[in-house]
Amino acid sequence: MAAVQESGFVVLAAGASATVARRLAKEAQMRVVMVIVLVAVTTTLAAAQASGVRLPAETAGREQVARTLVAAFDQVDVVALGEDHGQQRDSDLRIAIVRHPDFARKVRAIVVEFGSTTEQATLDRYIRGETVPRAQLEQVWKTTTRAHFGELDSRFFIDFFNTVREVNAHLPAASRIRVFGGDPGPTDTRSRQTAAVSVLKEQVLQKHEKALVIYGAAHFYRVAPADYLAGMGQDVGIARMLEAAYPGRTLVVIPVGGRMELPPGITMPAPSYAKFDRAIATPQRPVLLSLQRSPFRDLKAEEFLGGKLLTCGGSGGCRSVFMGSPLTLGPIADACVYFGSGE
Questions:
Q1: What is the pLDDT of residues 211-226, one digit of tens each?
Q2: pTM for the full model?
């Protein structure tokens, strides 16, 4: 289990060091940076609507999920692929997407959270196939605002960059994919999501191009509890910010499922993944599901996303940002990749 601190919030992901999670949770508890908004309804209703992308009822198996998401670029300009940090399954899926033969025919840009805006020249050189010393390449993610990513899954970053580099090696120069770091580096004074949205607007949307965007899933939530948003300043969500200028052009896909280990002292009921399993015809996992159809749109976010995003501000310890929220999965994202209960 891993943890990434976000302005007083801790984003959790299974599969990495518990020591990192405990350290970050402790730091977050000591930093009272969260603004508590006392409202009767804890959700914000100012979010953008779903993209309206037409998806198959079920798409099972990693390669088929990749194929369907690549095909979605025929309907939208941006596919926002959320991840749980530190997960092999997420790494495998995004690599399958990039390796799909139709991806490079449709997409020229990828924007990643694990790349710094100030190390774009280094990243460009590596992706073009030039020789870049490992220590220099590491600065691409070590100069992000969340440099502790390196403790979680730097091996996944290398795997992904190498995949794009290999795909580009077989493409003509004019057709090669460019990877953009979306996280502000040391001299970039923009907020995290403002930087990402600026890169997408300037390098993709204003040029009438298409992009795959890879960030922690919470950055893409179309709606979220009000107290969570209050602690995030101007960073109200990448998808929400894009919708203001480019409505209906972003598909939001989030991961659901898998085991979750919480930091010491934090307990919450385990999700009942049987609610998913009973409604899915295929036994194969992962499976891509539209969250705009029953029963998935009506499942509670607190149950299935609650253990992934905690607030640790104040004296009350850590709790899920979705605690007590009436939010369901449908308004949060367009689709999910369901990995089952045991991944």
A1: 999 999 999 999 998 8
A2: 0.88
